[in-house]
Amino acid sequence: MNSIEKPMDLEQRIVNFQEDYYRLHNQLNQVIVGQDQVIGDLITALLIGGHVLLEGLPGLGKTHLIKALASSIEVSLSRIQCTPDLMPSDITGSEVLLRENGGDNIRIDFRQGPIFSSMLLVDEINRTTPKTQAALLEAMQEKQVTCAGKTYALPSPFWVFATQNPIELEGTFPLPEAQLDRFLFKISVDYPTSESLMKMISISLDEEPADHIGSILSSQRVIEMMQEVKSVIISDTIKQAAIALILATHGEHSQGSAIAKKYIHYGASPRGLQAITKAARIRALTDGRVHVALDDLKAVAPLALRHRVLLNMESELNHILIDDILEQIIETWHQTQISH
Amino acid sequence: MAKLDILTSIEHKTIIDTFVQQIRQMLWYEIIQAQLSLGFIISGSLLFFLGLINITYHAIPLSLCLIIASLPLITTLCIALGRRPDHLAAARFADNNFKGKSLLTTAVELLNQKKSTTESSLYIFQQAARSSLMWQKQWQTTLRYTPKPTTWFFICIAVVGLFLAFQQGKNLTIHRSEAPSYRQEKAPNKSFSRSLLAEIKQSPATNNKTSPPEIEDNALNRKPKQTFSKAPNEAIDISLEDSMTKNTKILSQNKTIPTETKSQHQSANNSVDYQEEQTALPPSPDGDKDMKIKTVDIIISGGTLLSNGKTRTSLDKPIRHRVNNKISFSAKTSKNETPLYPSDFSIVQRQYIETYFNKIQREP
Predict the structure, then answer these.
(1) How many CB pairs below 8 Å do chains A and B form together?
(2) Degrees to nearest 5, angle at CA A336 with B28 and A186
(3) Could you give the ipTM of this predicted complex?
(4) What is the pLDDT of residues B75-94, one digit of tens each?
(5) For chain A, does the N or the C end have fewer beta carbons within 10 angstroms?
(6) What angle do CA B151, B153, B156 make, to 5 degrees?
């Protein structure tokens, strides 16, 4: 029993976690005005170590937000602007011939690509070819790069933040399901409100706020916060509830909801279950708890499931959006869990 | 310091456990009360319905009413037993009620686990114990089960239904308390009825005072205990043309009386069906036989039917004629006087009844 620490120590750590979380949140909120929810989701993904796909119209500050985040936590950021002629080696790096001693010695050396950084911003990821998109698969899942038979480890922690436009889809390459599944969250960046726009003008009229953004958390502190999340307990009841939520998206399953049977072709993957439970832990900790509640699952479920559920033809013909379907599924699931 | 932590942890666990036990107990009572309430609603409705049937349409034995009415109560009790909440269900209920965000559920799960105590679990115990103490006060002041007024209404309905079920049925004049012993002792069996029919058939239609000699030898001469052994409500169908004469012969040859089912006696056309729902009372000590035949159903298929003094012919379907009147008959005067029948009695009915009384008079 000597390993038992005082609960007060944990309580203090939770308070510290909350303070750091909201400090980062407030700093980003000053750069990107009126996107509180997006910022919160982004930090949640950051603390899990997951990759994020940001989807929104041009000019909403997606790229700006990622840059501000990287500056705030003192990590290296690389940016790739995706185009149709982008090659995988442009991302991962390639082997080059090097001449030494006046050309007498020739050796092959691996020149690292932009992927070798803690944070990778892949701008407009759907504009590049599937071949180049696939170059990210190994890096995102296994956090390593293989080139010419050699495997190179990526820095830890490693995050991929990709952006894409929901419009101008001509000449784009939609991400395959396998790659979509590797993103922890798909965050929709909506248009800000008029009050937010007014505040934005006031802030950015004379100078760009992102230019003056400084680091408020060290990368080491971010890693500590990521470790802190592991202290959050998920009870078996909550685990079963999370499983029930994932199965509710499967129309063919006996626990599948009625709307899933009607409109969903493929339900969420087990990776979706992992994403929900991990994100729920962060949300619990930011709320000052070391146990996950049903509400935590409910809050993070749309983020984690919206890109993992494949709609069928009927929903597309009826112009039913995935968010509407998920909202109904989650609400039904929540009511069932409460009344259970 | 570690010992203090352990003691604190035990205290927290005790507080949580006590609170969860309280919730569980109350939930259990609530489930039982709710299920019993539902049972009373169904049972009350059923009992009332059965009571109404008893007094308006057909007599139903009280025991049957009570058995049917008790079935929903037993079922709901079984359901309540099946829904008995465990600790986890009680904790979940408390979390949902007090917006506990699964705190108590997690704490109870950790209590049940045999894993070593971690820092987080200690913190959860601490939080859960604190919340339990707070919720306990709210629980005592706010959450109480109150029976629904509909339950009391249906309990009243059940009482009314029970009262109706206690009443005499529509086709009964004998009190239920007398019926069982009476039925066992004096109820005539099928053979007896068949022998009566044989008498009716073999004697002239106008002869209701004397019986032919061959009837003296048949089953009618037996003692009442041998002949009255059948339940009164059983219908007896006898074919006049074929089966009745055969049975009469068989009965005259054999002293034992076979018990036959209705299906064995199902007749085709030209048949007479008798349904005896109540039979005669035992003779009084002074020798008079104050006979009360409560209900005699006579079904005559085909041929000529006399009913209410009118003649019907060429009947394609059997006609059921139910008599629900009392006939008083004195044994001392029956040989010389014709009893008074209600006007709607047919000749066949009169013959049947008179033959019945003649047979009884002949018995020692």
Answers:
(1) 75
(2) 145
(3) 0.82
(4) 999 999 998 889 888 998 88
(5) N
(6) 110
